[in-house]
Amino acid sequence: MTLIPVPVKDEYQSAIRWLVLSALPKVGPVRLAGLRNLAPQWPQGWLANLPAPSATALRLWLDHPQRSPFHDYVQRMLEWQQAKPHRYLLHPDHALWPRLLSEIADPPAILWAEGSLEALHAPCVAMVGSRRPTRAGLHHASHFAAGLCDAGWTLVSGMALGIDGAAQTAAMDAGGVSIAVLPGGVDVVYPSRHAGLYQRLRDEGGLLLAQRPLAMQPRAGDFPSRNRIVTGLSCGVVVIEAAERSGTLISARLALEQGREVMALPGALGVPQARGCLQLIRDGAALVRDVDDVLAELSHWLPALRCPQSPPSSDAETDGAVAGEPAGELSKELTKELTEEVAGKKAREGTKEGAREDVTEVVTEVVTEEDASPLLRWLSATPTPLDALVDLSGWQVAPCQRELMHLEIEGRAMLVAGGWVRVPQ
């Protein structure tokens, strides 16, 4: 099935709508996904189903956008998109939104993207591993990444130091395609040591993605949250190396929760970076020895993935419906209401950086606020075992585990020796 790009007007209205929805207080990815599945009519159906603080904020935006704290935020995001080619605001109603990402329980409401969207149209496989790899681990990462790209797969990772960066560099060196999901804003190079890789991914056929707004530096909770996008985009994840308590194992657990394939390379018993992989294999992950083993594990995904979407055509790129190109007079008309107030304010008062910082602070607070969980009342700096949390909360084990996983993704809770602890905000 070939998807026809939506008209410019509809696309810009949808982008603005999802920018605002993603910034509402008291609404996280899980609730937004649930509301979208209800397919409420816009805007009355959303207003009726949103929590009171969210509905109030949305109503203010709808009735008086210039008075809303979202006003300058939305304007800056649209200005960023239109400033250069190949910049995109992807959202669940976008014609080129990755289908697999909509299948996870907590898809992001919006993704800032820069690079080539064609990277999303080949089947994707994630590759993750230790930030302190062995020499053998770096060799395996490069070998597997190049081989998978040669076989037509897009390699997804987080551009982290160690295995992630080595795999993505090898993918680009092999003439393949790679997607980096960043923990901060899409315009924030993290880690800074990978500035060269960042530029290659952006300019040489790869793609940069981020769920955090522009200019946002990554926080501790953004890394596991980023990882669920890495695995959500992919049919499976290959773990090259991981220590016993490595953050890489969070990616493997997320992939399992999402119904993705989990594969791991075996390593020597005495090597610390192999222990996490050996644990995964013992727990049921597929043992892979070479690229052919990975392809065999992923082969059953291919029939379902054939032609779900088509890459953007040259017509789509130039009409501004799906691309980050300046969209001409029509898009200027659509953003006129947003720009007039900002332009008028600058003309009357000049550019007041203090005022802009105040607005940015308000929007940042609104964007990052998530729903509070009932389990948080039972968590503190002292580790609490899972069975104790089950007794205290009265929940069943499975729902309790799922909620703890979401808290871990949001950076609110962490599993340590002895149980779960609350992460100070």
TrEMBL record:
Output the superkingdom of the source species: Bacteria
The GO biological-process annotations, alphabetized, read as: DNA-mediated transformation
Domain (DprA winged helix) ranges: 368-419
Q: Mind telling me which Gene3D superfamilies this protein's record contains?
A: 3.40.50.450, Winged helix-like DNA-binding domain superfamily/Winged helix DNA-binding domain (1.10.10.10)
Locate the region Disordered.
307-331, 338-357
Q: Any idea where the Smf/DprA SLOG domain is? A: 91-298
**Family per UniProt?**
Belongs to the DprA/Smf family.
Name this polypeptide is given: Uncharacterized protein
Source organism of this protein record: Halomonas huangheensis
Q: What is the lineage of its organism?
A: Bacteria, Pseudomonadati, Pseudomonadota, Gammaproteobacteria, Oceanospirillales
